[in-house]
Amino acid sequence: MVASEVRALFAVASRPEIVSLAGGMPNVAALPLDQLGDLVKDVVSEEGTAALQYGSAQGDPVLREQICDYMTLEGIQAVPDDVIVTVGSQQALDLITRVFVDPGDIVLTEAPTYVTAINTFAAFQADIRHVGMDDEGVDTDELDHALTEAAKAGRTVKFFYTIPNFQNPAGITMSAERRERVMEVCRRHDVLIVEDNPYGLLRYDGEQKPTLYSQGDGNVIYLGSLSKTLSPGLRIGWALAPSAVRAKLVLAAESAMLSHSTFNQFVVRRYLETFPWREQIKTFNSMYTERRDALLGALNTMMPVGCTWTRPEGGFFVWATLPEGIDAKAMLPRAVNHRVAYVPGTGFFADGRGRDSMRLSFCYPTPEQIREGVRRLVGAIEGEIDLRDTFGPAMATTTEGSQAPTPDLP
Ligand code: PMP
User: Fold this and answer.
1) What tens digit of pLDDT does each residue of 239-251 get?
2) Which of 83, 123, 163, 258 could bridge 167 with an S-S bond, Cβ 3.0-4.6 Å?
């Protein structure tokens, strides 16, 4: 296990003078905190003896029923028995990897992909292989090729991990046609799909796409989470899995933590019972729309020639690529001097790629801070461009090799 680049950045990015376009923290200040306080109090006074007791490793049955109701907004039909509550969807990733992956097994992911999924797969010694993406999502010819080559080499591919909606970090959404093609390719190769969808309901424009799960026949494990639509602090996520897999996940969860936090589940239960939570999601969406538009607008007007970036229809992230010869990781200390932070692209690949790219998140700073952050970022990029134009690319990039540590930040 190694600390992720995102973690190394947190200490710097949280300094007050820095505009952080780095962290992916939801803006929980938009929640009605006083009402939530009353709700927590009611859980203790009215249901305390149950809420403060052990529970099950599969999760509270009432909450699982509510999760099924929540998932109908994504077009998913499921019954409570299909659901296992997890400590955020992160725990589902851990449990799935624990259950399926033996050292050396191949796990396929999009390139780039969610940094902590990479770390989890790596912790279980998976052989992580990336499959490229374009603006419609994963390249299915490349996926097909990777699966064919693995079969020819007699290698086991345990699953294909994908984030089809507003992908972290690329901000890309898989098109409906591409989803059908992913299903076809994985079915033909008899490979399990892990569909990670924590951002699905945070859509700011465009049409909702059908989930892979709803097109599957027992070959998709679906992961959901309330971290972005309610609160990451409550740590409520879930997996929807075929029964044989689910039974193993419950056993793995039991050995990891015996029982979930009954208390947190009761809080969420009551929230979903008594709060206009669909309205709350709309509130989040209009706030995040404004922030996304602020970031895209600022990038459009300020970024130097040669930079490109994605235009997400939802979620939290934009993926930006720098002009040739500029290294996002080497540039980070300069960016911090300009009082702005981002996550360099290398953290989102298992193989050292991504030096020319960065993830910019728009969820936490205000629109004004975002515009100021981009102004500062552009100052840093222009400084690197000057250096490159004066001394050539070798001088502009100060770290070498894909395994170079995160630079010591001032
Ligand atoms: N998957 C993806 C793609 C994410 O971006 C995150 C959080 N950043 C998670 C899973 C984990 O979320 P949580 O455990 O809070 O549900």
Assistant:
1) 999 989 999 999 9
2) 163
